[in-house]
Design goal:
With 362 residues, this protein is α+β, with helices and mostly antiparallel strands. The protein has 2 domains: 108 residues, 2-Layer Sandwich (Phosphorylase Kinase, domain 1); 233 residues, Aminoglycoside 3'-phosphotransferase, Chain: A, domain 2 (Alpha-Beta Complex), CATH 3.90.1200. 40% of the residues are buried. The radius of gyration is 21 Å and the shape is globular. A 5-stranded antiparallel sheet has the order 1-2-3-5-4, covered by helices on one side. Helix 4 runs parallel beside helix 9 and helix 7 crosses helix 9. It contains 11 helices and 9 strands.
């Protein structure tokens, strides 16, 4: 197996002028793509890179979208991004034909710093939370008004919500006879009700007039690198798309502040959420490109958090039925999403969340 991977990686590197492969290590953190830390040697010097083999089914226009966003950020002086390297042919990816379909590869800078967290129960410090908010605001500012090449093959959240409802029903009809299936069947109706209610809430005029720009769409502590309390890298832009700015903020809040601990599963850390929002708003105050979130965006934000939870639940359900995965692992994700939904559905929690968000008004 190791010999087969080595041969595959050497073939891909043959399309680049970055040296000869001398070592590699599989990155086990990803769920969607297959990634490697690779080391090459050229003119006696060793260099480290990040090589990604993209998931099957990704379309070429989606790669063009992702890579154009990365290139734009680099051109804007956003130093936390890993540059994508060009092949000898001038492309930012390599295409191969495997099992009767296209397979794509790309090579990136290897970002410095430590992978301190995953997307599950990150438990960041207050300082890390504030710095993460600053980075997200800087990212949004850098992409404001930018029109990427290509297109992400996923609609905006307001168009995606009805599809999520359909996917819940499709998943519940497939049934693998596992504890995951039993949990989905038990909560199918409440998820569908949540989809309908979120759609109604986001259908008001105020929520249709919010800022739209490139969303990272996977902004969580596992996609950040840290060193001595500072953030040294932001990566994994393959989920990025054009959507409401407040959806990207909401999704980040879900990842950062929804607890996974026993007895607290699904509950939000509202103190840290307040720190995050205020740091995000301060970073953009007085900026010529992008202003802080408006009152209308903040009004939409609680409903966008609900939508974000449905967005992650949708991935959980789709991925479970599309691949051979561990049912017990995915049951944890499903139950977490249900617990978040319950926490948000409590009137007292909802009111507290709204007060927290209102405190960030400028």
């Amino acid at each position: 197996m190791k010999a087969d991977v080595t041969s595959e990686l050497r073939e891909i590197l043959g399309c680049y002028d970055i040296g000869e492969l001398v070592d590699w290590e599989r990155n086990e953190r990803g769920y969607v793509n297959t990634s490697y830390a690779i080391e090459t040697v050229v003119n006696g010097g060793k260099h480290k890179y990040f090589l990604r083999k993209y998931k099957r089914g990704i379309r070429e226009q989606e790669l063009r979208f992702e890579h154009s966003v990365i290139n734009h950020l680099a051109e804007q002086g956003f130093e936390l991004v890993a540059r994508v390297f060009k092949t000898r042919d001038g492309e930012t990816y390599v295409r191969r034909w495997e099992n009767k379909e296209d397979v794509f590869y790309a090579v990136f800078d290897f970002l410095p710093g430590e992978d301190r967290y995953t997307w599950i129960n990150p438990a960041c410090s207050d300082g890390e939370v504030e710095k993460a908010a600053v980075v997200l605001a800087r990212f949004h500012n850098a992409v404001m008004g930018f029109a990427p090449a290509g297109e992400r093959d996923e609609p905006r959240i307001i168009e995606l919500l009805p599809i999520i409802g359909e996917n819940v029903a499709k998943g519940a009809a497939k049934i693998k006879q596992t504890a995951f299936d039993a949990c989905l069947l038990e909560h199918q109706q409440s998820i569908q009700k949540n989809v309908a209610g979120t759609l109604r809430a986001l259908g008001v005029a105020e929520c249709k007039e919010v800022v739209h720009l490139v969303n990272h769409c996977d902004y969580h502590p596992g996609n950040l690198k840290f060193r001595n309390g500072d953030i040294t890298g932001l990566f994994d832009f393959d989920w990025s798309k054009i959507d409401a700015r407040c959806f990207d903020v909401a999704l980040a809040m879900l990842y950062f502040f929804a607890d996974w601990g026993e007895g607290r599963d699904g509950a939000f850390d509202l103190d840290q959420a307040a720190l995050f929002l205020k740091a995000y708003q301060r970073t953009l105050e007085g900026g010529p490109e992008l202003a802080p979130m408006s009152d209308a965006e903040l009004e939409c934000l609680p409903h966008m958090i609900n939508a974000s939870n449905l967005y992650v639940l949708n991935w959980t359900i789709e991925d479970f039925y599309a691949r051979e995965v561990d049912p017990e692992e995915y049951l944890i994700y499903l139950r977490h999403g249900v617990q978040v939904m319950r926490w948000l559905g409590d009137e007292g929690n909802w009111a507290a969340l709204k007060r927290t968000i209102a405190s960030a008004k400028m």
